[in-house]
Description:
This protein is an all-alpha fold. 63% of the residues lie in helices and 1% in strands.
Amino acid sequence: MAEFKEISPNASAGAKLTNWFENRFPTAFDAYRVHMSEYYAPKNFNFWYIFGSLALLVLVIQIVTGIFLVMHYKPDAAKAFESVEYIMRDVPWGWLIRYMHSTGASAFFVVVYLHMFRGLLYGSYRKPRELVWIFGCAIFLALMAEAFMGYLLPWGQMSYWGAQVIVNLFAAIPFVGPDLALLIRGDYVVGDATLNRFFSFHVIAVPLVLLGLVVAHLLALHDVGSNNPDGIEIKGPKAPKDAKGKPLDGIPFHPYYTVHDILGVCLFLMAFSAVVFFAPEAGGYFLEYNNFIPADPLVTPAHIAPVWYFTPFYSMLRAITTEMMYALIACVVLAAAFGVLKGRMPAIFKGVVVAAAAVGVALMLAIDAKFWGVVVMGGAVIILFFLPWLDCSPVKSIRYRPSWHKYVYAVFVVNFVILAYLGVQPPSPIGERVSQVGTLFYFGFFLLMPWWSRLGEPKPVPDRVTFAAH
């Protein structure tokens, strides 16, 4: 048992109360010191570093508003839509809670996409933060599952038919697909059993996983330290430190970055409130107009599309047609040929590469393109997990990479936005071609990264972080 800390009898009432709690709950105060007041973060953080704390804020908003919605929502196919209407019309402030939750879902993906892009820019996934990045990608995957299952709950037309389309995709998996789709639905069509399953996962299972991953993400981050725009380690063995071992290029997270984040929170809440009060549907992107119509299994909407934050991956799914399969086969053959001709490997490994390529081509020709569309859609997310090992640049930050790398990243962002836009549009021949090119570029960006990230002469990286007081 730890010894009690004494305090002067003349101390203030607040100091006495703090001392009383610290003597009885020292673990909490130790955690506060480790993760806040004595956690040294690089002094050159910029505005890109507010999105992690904003993601945490939106998670809290979603949990709190979700608790209030569950109080009135009924996970019953015959009553779900009516219960949402009851919340909107008759529950005091119910409309505000519902709009905060629906806007929060989109806001979550906005800040997470920006947070991930910042990691991409500054190499926050590089050694020693590989595990931090992997936990972050797992959070993104869990967030997608959470959003998809929550999307069914209003039981509107787009909720129903969107879930029908996405769940049916699992049926394209050879051998186990039909049984897997039946297991997910709980019935032969999306119905009451599906609603109950999705409700259970949305309210209990996935949030628990999400919270666990968030805690693991933060603990792993604070163990290895935060990255910075220069990509310089401030806590490494060669980093400059003072007499007490504190990094000279770091400052305590509290109070410096808590104030920094409070500014970001204020700006975010202003934008968030503007959307909630003046444009909660966001022109049909945050809440589709078809979702204000009760689900009807006998009436299919003219155009079925997921919510905007899924649409880049949905575009990749739709891009995989029979014609596209031939392009993918050509890519596999060219990659195998390049590996055999240019790779420095024993003859036996070259034989394995050729055999694997032959098997891959045979599978592509034998299995329906719909299945490969599902593979591509899933692979677009899974490939992010391998980013720490795909990037072979000698420097971390985009600041010190060759200037043309910035244009590569800019094209990647534009390509992602175009794919997102095409995902909400009805299918068209031109849109199909553009999405096919965009899909090839998306995967080419990552799969060719071991090659192109090494090209060019990087700029000299300074020994200390570049910082100007402001």
